[in-house]
TrEMBL record:
Name of the protein: DoxX family protein
Highest taxon of the lineage: Bacteria
Chief localization: membrane
One of the Pfam families matching this protein, by short name: DoxX
PANTHER family xrefs: BLL4328 PROTEIN, OXIDOREDUCTASE CATD-RELATED
Keywords: Cell membrane, Membrane, Transmembrane, Transmembrane helix
Membrane topology designation: Multi-pass membrane protein
Organism: Plastoroseomonas hellenica
Subcellular location, record wording: Cell membrane
Length: 131
C-alpha cells in the first residue's frame, strides 16, 4: 500500500516536527525561568544549579537551538537525554505505565529528540545553511 503523502515531502515533515517539538519544549523553559506563558510551575523560578534549573536551561537553550536548526544533533541528543532522565526520575517511580504516571510527554520528547539527533535537522535549518 502506498502512502497518501509523497516521499519527497519527508524532509519538510521532519523540519515541521523539529520546529514544533522544539517550540513546545522551549515553552517549558520559558515557564520555569520567565513565568511565561503562565505562572511559575513551582511558585517561583528554580534555585540556581538545581535539577529543575538545569532542566529549564536545557529546555530554553536546547529549544531555541533545535527550533532554528543550529547544532541540532548535539542539542537534540542532550534534550532527549534530559527528557529520558525526567521520565525515569520524576514519573516512573509513580507507576509503571506512562499514562498513569503523567510521563507520556517526557517519554515522547525523549524519542522525538532522539530521532532528530539521528536524522538531522531537515529543511529550513541554520545547520543546512552552514553546510
Amino acid at each position: 500500500m502506498t502512502s497518501p503523502i509523497p516521499a519527497n515531502l519527508a524532509p519538510y515533515a521532519l523540519a515541521a516536527l523539529r520546529i514544533m517539538a522544539a517550540l513546545m519544549f522551549l515553552a517549558h523553559g520559558t515557564q520555569k525561568f520567565f513565568s511565561f506563558p503562565n505562572a511559575f510551575p513551582m511558585g517561583g523560578p528554580p534555585a540556581t544549579f538545581t535539577l529543575l534549573w538545569f532542566a529549564g536551561a536545557i529546555e530554553l537553550v536546547g529549544g531555541v537551538l533545535i527550533a532554528i536548526g543550529l547544532f541540532t544533533r548535539p542539542a537534540a541528543f542532550l534534550a532527549s537525554g534530559m527528557a529520558a532522565f525526567a521520565y525515569f526520575y520524576a514519573h516512573a517511580p509513580r507507576a509503571f505505565y506512562p499514562i498513569m504516571n503523567g510521563g507520556e510527554l517526557a517519554a515522547l520528547y525523549a524519542f522525538v529528540f532522539l530521532y532528530i539527533a539521528a536524522a538531522g535537522p531537515g529543511r529550513f535549518s541554520l545547520d543546512g545553511q552552514r553546510g
